[in-house]
UniProtKB/TrEMBL annotation:
Keywords: Glycoprotein, Leucine-rich repeat, Repeat, Signal. Residues 275-288 have a biased composition (Basic and acidic residues). The lineage of its organism: Eukaryota, Metazoa, Chordata, Craniata, Vertebrata. This is LRRCT domain-containing protein. Residues 241-291 form the LRRCT domain. It comes from Pavo cristatus (Indian peafowl). Residues 366-394 have a biased composition (Low complexity). Residues 289-308 have a biased composition (Acidic residues). PANTHER family: ANTIGEN BSP, PUTATIVE-RELATED, RETICULON 4 RECEPTOR LIKE 1. GO terms for cellular component: cell projection; membrane raft; perikaryon; plasma membrane; side of membrane.
Length: 394
């Protein structure tokens, strides 16, 4: 139902306004700035596909719940632009290729924000406090930027985050505390980076992670068994990496033998006589002569177990209880992922009620998405053949 002039706030020129829910659609009108006169009671603002260059404080009203600004020319965001938007739940700033820098307090105060889109910008780094206080955030899109590194505790306040998309950047290493504070994380996409090093504790604390994509990186080995910290893992992609199938491969090979996870192939790149062999199909004798694991690593594992079991030292309990007590991890009902995806949009401008495709088709950027692939083969049991030999003699 279109906004009726007279008694209701006027609709900006070249925009379309709707009454229920209060919506202003100004998309694809070649606006170089946010149009003036936005109705203060509007809950949904659609400003995508324009040429807006800057965002200024005081532009958006406090009733705004959904704000789409993707596919513009935004290069600067004035401090305080989003500070007085207490109801904001979804903010899309993606596909703004001139957005290179964000102030540390750009998103401070957005206590109800559930989805933040920063994909396809030109962000080479992120301030350490950029996500501070975003306790309600569940979906964070950082893919296809130019990120070179992620500092420890960058996501430490995001206890309710379930989806973290970091693929298509230039990351070279994952440090020990890079994912600290993410007990609710379910999906972590890190493919198409330049990762060569993963700290053995990089995934510690991600007890609910079910999907991990590390394909198309520069990984030759995963020393220290970092995947052992992921008890809920279901889907793993490690292909398109230069895996070294020598002694360095033993921790990963041993992990595959004791877990049941749907995985991509893991083709060896070296040594030459094993090139093309799937790392998962190596045999125990292939590791004859390899030194045992360092005692220091074993001691580190014991310390990890005691930290997790003891319940001390900053452990965060996340439970699926209903409610919206902001700032308390685990109290938010899970928002449906389909509410925040961009593919398959209908031709008209109001898209909130339209069905969206499932997340895998958009987020994985891989040929098979989250479709389960063949699990690593399990070693054949040896007890039955022995019984077959013994029974005829009884």
């Amino acid at each position: 139902m279109a906004w009726v002039p007279g008694g209701s706030p006027a609709c900006p020129a070249l925009c379309t306004c709707y009454v229920s829910p209060p919506t202003v659609s100004c998309q694809a009108n070649n606006f170089s700035s946010v149009p003036t006169g936005l109705p203060p009671g509007a809950r949904r603002l659609f400003l995508q596909n324009n040429v807006i260059r800057a965002l200024r404080a005081g532009t958006f009203g406090p009733s705004t719940v959904t704000l789409w600004l993707y596919s513009n020319n935004i290069s600067s965001i004035q401090p305080g632009t989003f500070r007085h938007l207490p109801a904001l739940e979804e903010l899309d700033l993606g596909d703004n290729p001139h957005l290179r820098v964000l102030a540390p307090d750009t998103f401070h105060g957005l206590r109800r924000l559930q989805a933040l889109h920063l994909y396809r910008c030109q962000l080479a780094s992120l301030p350490s406090a950029i996500f501070r206080g975003l306790h309600s955030l569940q979906y964070l899109y950082l893919q296809e930027n130019g990120l070179l590194y992620l500092q420890d505790d960058l996501f430490a306040d995001l206890a309710n985050l379930s989806h973290l998309f970091l693929h298509g950047n230039r990351l070279r290493a994952l440090s020990e505390g890079v994912f600290r504070g993410l007990p609710s994380l379910d999906r972590l996409l890190l493919h198409a980076n330049r990762l060569a090093t993963v700290h053995r504790h990089a995934f510690r604390g991600l007890a609910r992670l079910t999907i991990l994509y590390l394909f198309n990186n520069s990984l030759a080995a995963l020393p220290g068994d970092p995947l052992a910290a992921l008890p809920a893992l279901q889907f793993l992609r490690l292909n398109a990496n230069p895996w070294a199938c020598d002694c360095r491969a033993r921790p990963l090979w041993a992990w595959f033998r004791r877990t049941r996870v749907s995985s991509s192939p893991v083709p060896c790149a070296s040594p030459p006589h094993r090139r093309g062999t799937d790392l998962r199909h190596l045999r125990p004798r292939d590791f004859d002569g390899c030194p045992e694991e360092d005692e220091e690593e074993d001691e580190g594992k014991d310390e990890d177990d005691s930290d997790e079991g003891g319940g001390g030292g900053g452990a965060v309990a996340v439970v699926g209880t209903p409610g919206r007590a902001l700032g308390r991890p685990g109290t938010l009902p899970a928002a449906p992922p389909s509410a925040f995806y961009r593919d398959g949009l209908p031709p008209h401008d109001l898209r909130g009620s339209q069905p969206r495709p499932p997340p895998p088709s958009r987020d994985s950027r891989g040929p098979s998405g989250d479709t389960p692939v063949a699990a690593a083969p399990r070693p054949a049991p040896t007890l039955l053949p022995l019984l077959g030999l013994l029974l005829p003699r009884l």
